Amino acid sequence: MNYNEMSKDELIKEIKRLKSDKSYGLIWEEKPENMDEILKENYPVLTNVSEKDIINDLNKNVNLLIEGDNLHSLELLYTTHEKNIDCILIDPPYNTGNKDFIYNDQYIDKEDNWRHSKWISFMHRRLSIARKLLKEEGVIFIHIDENEFAQLKLLCDEVFDGNNFIGAFIWKSRGGKGGTNDKIATEHEYIFCYAKNYQKAKIKTIKKIGKERREQLRQWGQEIYRENRPYMFFPLLYKEEGNIKATITDEEYQKIYDPVTDTFDDDFLEELKEKYEQEGWNFVLPIREEGYGRWRAGRNTIKELLKVTDEDKERIEFEKDGDTFVAKRVYPAGNVTETAIGTLILDKGTASDGTKELKRIFGEKVFDTTKPLDVTIFLLDLVLFNKSEGIVLDFFAGSGTVGEAVLKYNKDNNKNFKFILCTNNEMKEQTRNNLIRNGITPDMEEFKNEGVCRKVTYPKLKSIIEGYEYTGKIQEVLAEEKINKTFVRNMDEHYEKFNELLNNDDETYSEVKVKVINDKIQIIGVKEIESRMEGYLANLKYYITDIIPKNRNKDQMKIIMAQKIYDLLCIKENCFELVKEEDFFRIYRQGNKILGIYTFFRNNQLEEFKKEINKLDAEEKIIYSFSFTEEVQEDLFNDIEYTKVKAIPNRILEMLEELRGEER
Q1: Fewest CB atoms less than 10 Å from the CB: which of 38, 354, 355, 517?
Q2: DSSP type of residue 243
């Protein structure tokens, strides 16, 4: 926007607009994205690349890999998975200025004055759609570092609402101090966690099964005096013989404290003491050195606990303390306590671990910023722990770690989640320039095969699904001692043992080394291994996004679009096995479900379509039939049992236009 070229009226209008904008939050100069301009004149579509599909058992989940700009992918997923994603986990470009972020086909460097605005514009569009995809209880995790930490927090507060902010994890992403700047060694990154609906989101807690624990029933810490909580001051009664426990009557309890005058009747309290002691009771009060205290629990709770005699249950017991008795609240062994998860992630792998995991598959470094499996599985478990199935989305898939994490999480926990990964097919600037210099242009398959999706993401997923051979190293702890005073006193003994291990001629280990971690010293044996990693035998469907030009004739546009959405509807209905294909219809099967798609605007092939569907037995039959409106003639399909009939492609076009309207 060039203010120098604006008229007075235009400037006044702009000033009014700016004044009407929010007074607090993230405000940035919107930077048009080429992809937005493309989508103004085109619709996104996708096509299955069947030769890249990996199918082991179509009765099991089918995972998806979508190659293309993730704005295309997200808009298409909006038509198939609105309010249907359990967890989104993304690792977007950090916008470091070191050629890690491409905007409008150009790398953004530190000298770009609009660097942050471009990144925010880029993320805002994608996060806005991502929110629409989440279930009400869904959660999103976003990796980021210090370059866009502050901006991302404000952006997410706007997109997801600040009230849905769950927390920001601090992940120790470096084992050493490789991220050193001029003043401070950066050893961590951040992971934002937002819910779509904070009240409905469930986050795994830390559960501890405790040993028997005894606590003073008398209050400690804050508000310890009876004046602080008058109704939590009253005597307990105890007879040691027979272990009989009780308290005073409700009528007596009411006379101890007068709320009108805010005073305690200590004379009456003394009368009660004499009365009950004459009856053989020990009169137990929450007495402190400086005066009367109060109990940690209310009267009703204490009355119930006094009735409990079962030692396997929570109860009150009395212990001798000199000439008197004190009351203890007893928590039995096996009592389960829950605490919230902490924000520090210190032991879930580092960035270098992620690089090693990827290198084990490829034999060399093929990707710069790979997150380790451990931290990814840790995050997934926080929100999937109480579910047996669902969908995980990563629309910055990169090396495909989220896909591998989902498959491993399923196997280790007997669960049934599936993943959707979206990634572009970009490559390093140097690689791109070298290819073009050698006459290999972007429209050629040889060029495309050097992009990240085809060279890294897909080959990795193929390897972990089918299994792969690898050579590498494993480490075993041969000895470990905690560094403390005892260790120092026995230094000679430890030195002799460690020295023997370090100088052992055992050929089992290619290397034996010393490692100090936290407060422990370890002797590590390193083994060279050749092995095979067995595959997960999952299913994967591969798709590529594309565009089709918009047609001003709306009916003509619907006819064209109908021919392009077979694969999209397969994704929507999770039904992929092609049974029958003709010019204007296709029929698919998945387990006990049949999916029929009729795309011709005339009905002259409808009878053949229905005949083919009726040949197939299934508990559920879903039919999509072409219509110029939202309605479809359901009576045309009355002769097909167990059928749901839906119209296409009107609603899909409407949903895509809704997103365009929001952008405007």
Answers
A1: 517
A2: T
Residue with tokens 């002691």: 277
Q: 151, 32, 615, 63: which is closest to 389 by C-alpha? A: 63
Q: Quick count: other Cβ atoms within 10 Å of Cβ 479?
A: 16
DSSP assignment letter at 204: P
SS3 329: strand
Query: Is position 35 within any domain?
Result: yes
Q: Which domain holds residue 227?
A: 209-337
| CB distance 581 to 104 below 8 Å | no
Residue 598, φ and ψ in degrees, nearest 5: -110, 120
CB atoms within 10 A of CB 395: 24
Rounded to 5 degrees, what angle do the CA atoms 581, 594, 637 make?
85
Report the run of H or E that residue 479 belongs to, with start and end: strand 467-482
pLDDT digits (tens, 9 = 90+) for 572-613: 999 999 999 999 999 999 989 999 999 999 988 999 999 999
Q: Which residue has the tokens 């200590």?
A: 266
Q: Is the bond preceding 549 in cis, omega lying within 30 degrees of 0?
A: no
The reply to whether 627 and 657 lie within a common domain is: yes
pLDDT of residue 36: 78
Alpha helices by DSSP H, listed for 416-520, are 429-437, 445-448, 452, 458-466, 485-489, 491-502
Based on the domain organization, do 200 and 64 belong to the same domain? yes
Which amino acid is present at 372? P
pTM for the predicted model, two decimal places: 0.77
Q: What is the pLDDT of residue 18?
A: 64
The two structure tokens encoding residue 461: 């997923």
Question: Would you say residue 539 lies in a domain?
Answer: no
Whether 352 and 445 map to the same domain: the answer is yes
- Please state the length of the chain: 664
Identify whether residues 128 and 66 lie together within a single domain.
yes
DSSP designation for 218: B
Contact 578, 499 (CB under 8 A): no
For the stretch 368-383, what's the b/e string if a residue is b when 16 or more beta carbons lie within 10 angstroms of its beta carbon? eebbbbbbbbbbbebb
What's 48's domain CATH number? 3.40.50.150
Can you list the residues of the chain whose pLDDT is less than 70?
Answer: 1-2, 17-25, 27-32, 97-113, 176-182, 662-664
pLDDT (0 to 100) of residue 207: 85
Residue 540 resides in a domain: no
| pLDDT value, residue 28 | 65
* Structural domain count, the chain: 4
pLDDT at 113: 63
Tell me, yes or no, whether 544 lies in a domain. no
